[in-house]
Design brief:
The protein is an alpha/beta fold and about 300 residues long. It has 2 domains: about 130 residues, Medium-chain alcohol dehydrogenases, catalytic domain (Quinone Oxidoreductase, Chain A, domain 1), CATH 3.90.180.10; about 130 residues, Rossmann fold (3-Layer(aba) Sandwich). It contains 9 helices and 15 strands. Helix 2 crosses helix 3 and helix 2 packs across helix 8. The longest helix has 20 residues. The chain is globular, with a radius of gyration of 19 Å. The termini are close together.
């Protein structure tokens, strides 16, 4: 089979021939029809000291089932997060991370919806939103952010503000239901928000925190790091919560599954529409990474093996 790999920090990415993997206990072997490209993986390629396996969201048909895996059979269509080599014709997916794909959804829609939607739902739950509150979503045009905009509305937000890196993205996020759009460089982010869902981190944490109303909550789910001054929390009685999806998947599987089912229900009734910026062949994986790294994408970037 074909697989994308690299040998040193920063790449380049290249295709190689590799044996089809065997599913271990509790694992599924999936013939990949779509693979989601994520910012954390793109960053690791650029920054990690040692090469990593290029993983991410995958979707496709189960072709083999490992010992002890009981939820799925050969031929079932699934999607989930692959921690091994996912940029490939075939990939191994742990059954606990797998979600059934309904017949109404394509593989591309599945990778654009499920993992990003789970992160957005989880961050939203961590914000403890009350009906009618104002939500502010950073990286609002990203693979996760564009879903967070829609989910905040579906969960009862009275006003949704989308923060983006480029004002040219405004029509896209408005089409998803954002009431207002601000650029990161704007001096004033408008009406104070009751909660912020932040997927950027770094230097953006300061203006995101300043955009909160007194008593507001910021949920940080970015891999971008950053520092917050305690005084900035104290003066406005504000709070910051870190959110990590892996912890929920590992320790709260019932909640994790409930969120998955909620996503598919919202998708079925058209309340959440996953957007795909572009689809790339495996041979163009480097271009897919460039689209994400440059933050030029409107929605999800997908590889099509």
């Amino acid at each position: 089979m074909r697989r994308v790999r690299y040998e040193s920090t920063g790449g380049p990415l290249f295709l190689e021939e590799a044996p089809v993997p065997e599913p271990g206990p509790g694992e599924l072997l999936v013939r990949c029809e779509a693979v989601g490209v994520t910012l954390p993986v793109v960053r690791k390629v650029a920054e990690a000291a040692e090469p990593i396996a290029l993983g991410g969201e995958i979707a496709g048909a189960v072709v083999a089932v490992g010992a002890g895996a009981t939820r799925f059979r050969t031929g079932d269509r699934v999607t989930g997060l692959c921690f091994g080599h996912g940029y490939a014709d075939y990939a191994v997916l742990h059954e606990a991370m797998a979600s059934a794909v309904p017949g109404t959804a394509s593989a591309v829609e599945a990778v654009a919806l499920v993992r990003g939607g789970l992160v957005a739902l989880g961050a939203l739950a961590a914000a403890r939103p009350a009906p009618g509150e104002t939500a502010l979503v950073t990286a609002a045009a990203s693979g996760v952010g564009h879903l967070a905009v829609q989910l905040a509305r579906a969960r009862g937000a009275g006003r949704v503000v989308a923060a983006v890196s480029d004002p040219a993205k405004a029509p896209f996020v408005r089409s998803l239901g954002a009431d207002a759009v601000v650029a990161y460089t704007d001096a004033d982010w408008g009406t104070p928000a009751d909660y912020v869902l932040d997927a950027v981190g770094g230097d953006l944490l300061t203006p995101a925190l300043a955009a909160l109303a007194p008593g507001g909550r910021l949920v940080a789910y970015s891999s971008g790091g950053g520092t917050i001054q305690a005084y900035d929390l104290l003066v406005g009685a504000k709070s910051v919560t870190g959110f990590q999806m892996a912890l929920i998947a590992r320790e709260q599987p019932t909640r994790y599954e409930a969120w998955r089912q909620e996503l598919w229900r919202l998708f079925a009734r058209g309340a959440v529409r996953p957007a795909v910026h572009a689809e790339f062949a495996l041979t163009d994986a480097a271009r897919a990474h460039e689209a994400v790294e440059s933050r030029a994408n409107l929605g999800k970037v997908v590889l099509r093996p």
